[in-house]
Each structure stands twice: as C-alpha cells, then as structure tokens.
Amino acid sequence: MMASGWVWLCLLLAGWTSNNSMAAKITNFTIGAVLNDDRHDTLFREAITELNSDFTLLPVNATLHSASMRLDPNPIRTALKMCNYLIAQQVYAVIVSHPVKGDLSPATISYTGGFYHIPIVGISSREAAFSDKNIHVSFLRTVAPFFHQADVWAALLRHFHFWQVMVIHSADVDGYTLLNRLQTQFQSNDDDGEQREIKFELTKEFVPELEDFSKELQEISEGQSRVYLVYANAADAAVIFRDAAKLNLTGAGHIWLVTEQALDVPGVPIGALGLQQMHASNEAAHIRDSLYLLSSALREMEGSEKDITAPPQDCNSSGAVWETGRLYFEYIKKQVLNDGLTGKIAFDDNGDRLFSEYDIVNVNRPHAKTKVGQFFYSKYQNVLKLNVNDSEIVWPGGLRQKPEGFIIPTFLKVMTIVEQPFVYARRINDPSVETCNDGEVACPWFNNTAESSTDRFYCCRGYCIDLLKELAKKNNFTYSLALSPDGQFGSLSPKNGTGKKEWNGLIGELVEDRADMIVAPLTINPERAQVIEFSKPFKYQGITILEKKQPKSSTLVSFLQPFRDTLWILVMVSVHVVALVLYLLDRFSPFGRFRLANAENTEEDALNLSSAIWFAWGVLLNSGIGEGTPRSFSARVLGMVWAGFAMIIVASYTANLAAFLVLDRPKTSLSGINDPRLRNPMENFTYATVRGSAVDMYFRRQVELSNMYRTMEGNNYPTAEEAIEAVKEGKLKAFIWDSSRLEFEAAQDCDLVTAGELFGRSGYGIGLRKGSPWTDVITLSVLDFHERGFMEDLDERWIKLGSGQQCEHDEKTPATLGLKNMAGVFILVAAGIVCGVGLIFIEIMYKRHQIRRQRRMELARHVTDKWRTMVEKRKNLRAALENQRSRLKSNGKVNDSMTATRRTVGNKMAGSNIRTANNTEENLATLMPGNMMEMQSAQYHPPDGVTGLFSANRRSKLTRGTSVDMTDPLQQQPAVVCGRPGLYVDFSV
C-alpha cells in the first residue's frame, strides 16, 4: 500500500496504446491470473480448458486463453511484470490471490488494472480498502471483506437478546468501516421482525501495533454491558486478551465475540464466539467460480454490445481509454452464480461478494474450537439465516447457561418534576436542620446553568414518589432523587449559539447520561421514544381543556327547557286542532250533544267550540272534566286518542324536567377540540398549553391542528401552574393539558371545569436510557402493580381524594331547586291572574254596553208600540172624519176645519229647512196650511244647537245632518218636526 504512489507514477509515465479498431469479430479472449504457486496455476489452466469445452458458457465461436504470473513481494516489480506478461497478451480480466506474506501485491495488481480499466477479481483479499471504488475502480472479489462479519454479529446479538454491547476496534479503515456497518445493522430489523435496536454502550478504538490496553479495559469494566465485540488483527488481539484476563474480564458473566483474525490467537478467552467464512481458504474453488462468472459476463456482453474492442497490449504509449473494460466490469457485477463451488455468488455496488456463509465457532477449551452454528443461505427464502445450537456453547467460566450480558446497577439517579398531584415539593431552607417528614423524599434542585451555587432543597411527596418507593422496594435498588434543572419535561430546542437542536428538561438528563431513570407524569410519545425507552404506562390518560366554569343561568322560561320551541308550538296547535275537530264531530254526528240539545225532552246543552277547547286543555293538563264532554262515538274515540297523547307528553315533560332542573349542571362554553372558537379563534379568546411539553409536540405533529398550534405558540406558558392560575384570573380562556392534572384541578376548585371529550389519548411511563437493563424489570413491576391493584390505590389516594375534593358533592348529588329555577312558573301564574282581572273588566264593560243597548231597544219598541197605537187612532179618526165629511158635504164646514189644522202644523215647523227628494230646500215657514207636500227620503237640517235623531218609527233626539225618512205612514200628511233643541219629536199631528 505504501508503494502505491510509485506504481501510479510508473503507469502514468509509461502510458499505453491499444488496438481499438477491429476489422472482424473478436473470438479469442485471454484471462490473466496472478496466483501464489504452481498448483493453483495448474488448476487455473485446467478450468480454462474445461470452459472451452462447454459452448453454453462462452460467446459463439469464442475461445478462452490463459496468461499467468507469480506474485512478487515488491510492488514495482509486480506492476512491471503485469505490463510485460499480462497486459502484453491483451487480457480481458485478471484473477488475483492474496500473497502468503504481505498485502501489497494484490493492491498493485488492482491499481494497474484499474488504470487500464481491466477488471480484477480477487479470490482471497478481504481488506476494506478494496471496497473503495475511488481507488480500486475495477476490483471485485469472490470472498466477503472482513467488515461483513458485522452482519453475522448483529444476527448473533439478536439471537441471544444482547441489546447493549461494548465495541473494541482498530483505528484504521477496516475498523471504522466495520463500526459503520454495525450501526446500520443494529438499527435494522432481523428476519423474525425484531424491531428492538441494539445499542453501543461504549466504543473503544486503538491504534494498530498495540502494546497496552489496560486503561481502556478498566473503563469498559465500569459499564453495565458485559458483551464485548473485538475487531483486531492477531497481534493486537493478543494484547487485548492478555490485559482483559488481568482485569478478570474473561470469566463467568462476560461474553466475547471476536473476528476471524483473532480466533486463533493464544490467550483467546475460553467461551469466546468467533466466525469463520466458509470456503474462504479454498482458492481452487474460488478460481473455478471466478472463471465461470467471467465467461458468463463475456457471453452476455458479446450478445448485447456491438462495439467490443480489444484490451490494451502494452504500457509503453498513451492512447484512448478502453471503454469495453468498463462495460465488462459492469457486466461482471450483474452476474449471479447460484450453484458455485463456494455457494451463491453475487456482488454489491462496490464489487464485494454477497451471500457469504459463515461457521459459528466456540472456543470451548484452550486451543480447541467447536462449530456450534451456521450463517447460511436459504434457497427457499433467498436470505441468509442463522442457526445456532445453544446447548453446545460453552460460555466464559465454563458455564452452559447463557449469561445475561449485563450487570444491573443497584444505585440509580432518578429525576422528577413538580406536577400536582403526582409530585408535591416542600422547600426547606437548611437541610442540616430541617428534615423530610414521613412519606417525603429529599429532592434537591441543582442549577446546572449558574456559575455560582444556587441549589435549593426540597422534600417531595405524591403519586410518583409512592410509585418510586414501591419500585425500589420490589427490585432492591437504591436511588437519589432530584428535580428537573430547567423545570421542563423535555423537548428539542436549538442550542445557544448554534442551530443544532438538543433535548432539554428531563429527557435531556437521560440523553446526556446524567440520570438513569425518570419517575414523573411523563407522557409517552414518538419523539421521546426515539431517544429514550419507556416502561409500560403506569397511568392512561388523554388531553382535555380546562376553563373557568360558566355560572348557572336559570332563565324565566327554565320550565320550558324539556321541549324545544318547535315541539311546544306543535302541542299548542294540536290542542286547538283537536278541540275544533271534536266540536265538528259532535255537531254533525246524529248522536252528538248539538242535536240532542235541539231535540225535545232533553236537558243537555250542545257542545260548543268553547266547551271543546276547555275539554282539550283539561285532558292535556290532567284536570277533572265534569261537563261538556263529547257524546258521539266518533268524538269520544278522538278524545281517547288525545288522552293517550296527553299522557305521553306529560310523562316525557316530567322526566325531562327532572333532568334539566333537578340534576342541573353548569355548562361549559367549549364543546371540545373541534369547537369553532378553538379552530378559528377571535382576538379576545386566548388558549394555550405548556411550552415544549408533550401536548405541544402533539399539536405540532397533527397536521389538522396546525392552525391551533400557530395560535397557541405565542401564548404558551412555561409551567402548568402558571397557566392554571391564568385561567382562574381570567387572563386565559382555555388551558389544554393532560386530563389527569386538569380533572384534579377541577375537583379542587369549583370555579374550574373540564370541557369536551378526551383526545390524543396516551399514557404516563417511566423513562429510562436507551438499552437500559432496567427497562424490562421496571415494565414487569408496573404490570404487577396494575394486577394487584396498587395503581388503583394510588389513584384513590392522590387523585380522587388528594387534599380533599371540594366539588365532589356538587358533582354527585342533585341540585336543590330555588326561586330562580321556577320563577317562570310563578310569573306564568301571575300573568294568568293579571289576564283574569283584565278580562273581568272587559266583561263588565261589555255587559254594561249590552245593557244600554237593550234599554234603547226596549225604548224603541215602546215608542213603536205607542206610535202604532196612535196610527190606529188616526186611522179611526180619519175614517170618522171621512164619514163626517161625507155627511156634511152640503154645508162646507169641513174645509174650514182642515185648514185650521194645517195652519197649526205649519207654524210648528216654521224656521226649519227641509231638503226634499228632489234636492231642493224649502223653509218650513212657507208650508202654509192648504199646501200638501210629500217628503219621502227627505234630509232634515235642524238649526244650530239641535241634537238628536228621529226616524219614521221611533222617538229620538235630533242629530244635525242626519238623513231620516219622514214619510208619513198615511202617505198623505207630512211628519211634524219640532225645531227646538233638546225636544223629542212626536210624529202625530
């Protein structure tokens, strides 16, 4: 490797020329070989001959030729020999094996072939450097590199359930490449779907040619993991094993996984597990498989490509790049040999072999190894499978039972945070004087940011403190408890001065290995689960909304709440519709009250509309109906149906009235997370959560809640206590937080209430470091606590009855009704009284008016009767006069008598104007005796001051401008009108 610069310099100065024009199709192909000895050279030539006899593996009419040379320890001589012996024969590819001593020759062959784009196939070189295609541009190999052992190690660790390991590797290309591949494999799933990630507890690297490793091993011994992965060459591995034995790291309870190079080193720990690649040392098989791959690639390329040119034939002159060599290299990488002598062969993008098979080897006694398993290719599943016989393994210390692979520390650094009712903190000023009470645990707060010491001392108690004490008692560990330095649960936040985000709060303490466990109301969410581990939830909860309780508002119409407005309207309409139908049915039925009332020999009154309405209301209100009931069968059927309807309505009303009034509960102003005031908030409506909390992460993660997150982001509070206090003071309309805490606060303060249904359901878990051996132990303990009811006891003690719940009675007992609940009913009664009094006055006034009208009617009848009597008298008088006139015609006395009478009438009517039917006015004074005038439909205009009304058939006061009929009933004499004010008129003459 050190002489690679000289090789490249020689190649660049020499250059090369190639015959890149072909007049005919190429049929002769030369394959070169750089092998270790004559035996392998003979095998190579025999394989060429065998391929030439099989026409199915070669291009049509093609023949393979061989060209070989020996390896030379000197890289310069190797490069020159390759130019003189191989390139001069225009080789299409070169097969190279690893030298017995040194590792420079294969690299030299790779450099030279890569410069001319001649494919180089390694059959024994396993160093990671050959995977770098920036240097070894045309190198492939039929053996897997050493760092591919990481795949088998990961499978073994998962098989034995070792989830935390120590890695010791060399500080070179091979060591770093192996470490990167280990990281990739540890984060991937195995064939059985195992998703648990394997963690590096500690990684130690060393510079090759190691002399002492005691200091690093001492640091490793202080860790928890007892699984050691060693990647080193034989010399360095011997030093590591020697120092490990001195520190007693090779005895019982320790597990060593070593690389192939270190498996045969003296001093390898008894019980160590190692790997051996199958067929790795069988160069004859690799030569044959390589030739089969090369011939198959030639055949495929010759059938697909038209412009195939011959390789370069010397290194003495410059020329064009051999593009066919590049194509040939890509065709070789695509080849898959399913039934090779060394198993299935395929290549990755770097030209490294895939599907390499390994034997799992156990060092069961000094200088003795036993095969205990295999990492093999499964044709049926087309994957590599691990098969290990656990019973045959001898573990360090001569044990037959698999060790745990870790030691569990008995002292843990535990972190918590103040969050009622889970953790209460009481400050003490001088811990040397004051001590914590029974049930309390010392929980100091250490200021990690201040330069001067500002530590404070507290005593903690609560739900989580009791849980921690029970865990310690059950699992026999001791602990120290401290509060979160920044008072936060933990979130990703930018580091000061840099854009890099780091975890703060409780999560940051675990990530930075400053704590071993978190016992607090720590919500389990995906973001946190990526960096720490959680136990099974010790309490399940969700997210809810806290707001200030709205005062109970009992309106005057509270008694109408059981029914909606539309239902009340329908009931009112139904009452009157039923009453109307009852009235009509009873009226038109031949057996109804209406017909019976008109029949003879019956005393029953007819069912009028008023009685029907009274009946309908009486049935609805369940009042006794003594009279006015329908008699016909049709009406009674309707009455029965109406009674059933009334019974259902009244029963439903009564039941709902109890729900609305007797069990009245204060209503919240918010309906839940989907309330429009939260989704589209107004400026005067503010809501928030705790900055950097799990609830904050939940809103940030949910796309549909992004608008709410942006609204809350500027209003969030640093702690839950501050936000709850803001809700109490009215500064904050709604606080969104964990349901357990908010329900506790609502139970303590009757002015607070939770709104809506729970959402974002999750749980509180105990946080531990990634790969912590305590994870499974704590999880099993939590499950046991759930089974035996310990968690329910904690709920009862700290959440349901913690500090005494003031609002429990208000939540579980019926509310007592007061005047404000039933004020509407009393107002309804008062309205009925007022309406009754008002109606009685209206009835009195109406009755008085009716009486006056009746009196006028009686007076009119009296006048009419008197007038009729006088008319009869006049008729009789006229008849007498006519008789007298007829008797006295002869003497002439009649004319004188009539003239006198008419003169008298005319004098009485003098001074009044009469408008006759022909619309002419005549003064009554002009109506002298002897002037006969018929005044039909005359309009009388009395003088000013004359009031009253008169007609042809009644006595009345005259009213000015009133039209009257003054036709004399005898149709011969005019009516007599008195023009003086206030007098009644007599129609008689």
TrEMBL record:
It is a multi-pass membrane protein. CDD domains: PBP1_iGluR_NMDA_NR1, PBP2_iGluR_NMDA_Nr1. It is found in: Cell membrane; Postsynaptic cell membrane; Postsynaptic density. Disulfide bonds join 750-807. L-glutamate binds at residues 521, 523, 528, 738. The record marks 670 as: Crucial to convey clamshell closure to channel opening. The record marks 700 as: Interaction with the cone snail toxin Con-ikot-ikot. GO terms for molecular function: ligand-gated monoatomic ion channel activity; signaling receptor activity. GO terms for biological process: ionotropic glutamate receptor signaling pathway. GO terms for cellular component: NMDA selective glutamate receptor complex; postsynaptic density; postsynaptic membrane. SMART domains: Lig_chan-Glu_bd, PBPe. Keywords: Calcium, Cell membrane, Disulfide bond, Glycoprotein, Ion channel, Ion transport, Ligand-gated ion channel, Magnesium, Membrane, Phosphoprotein, Postsynaptic cell membrane, Receptor, Signal, Synapse, Transmembrane, Transmembrane helix, Transport. NMDA receptor subtype of glutamate-gated ion channels with high calcium permeability and voltage-dependent sensitivity to magnesium. Mediated by glycine. This protein plays a key role in synaptic plasticity, synaptogenesis, excitotoxicity, memory acquisition and learning. It mediates neuronal functions in glutamate neurotransmission. Is involved in the cell surface targeting of NMDA receptors. Plays a role in associative learning and in long-term memory consolidation. Forms a heteromeric NMDA channel with Nmdar2. Belongs to the glutamate-gated ion channel (TC 1.A.10.1) family. PANTHER family: IONOTROPIC GLUTAMATE RECEPTOR. This is Glutamate [NMDA] receptor subunit 1. It comes from Daphnia magna.
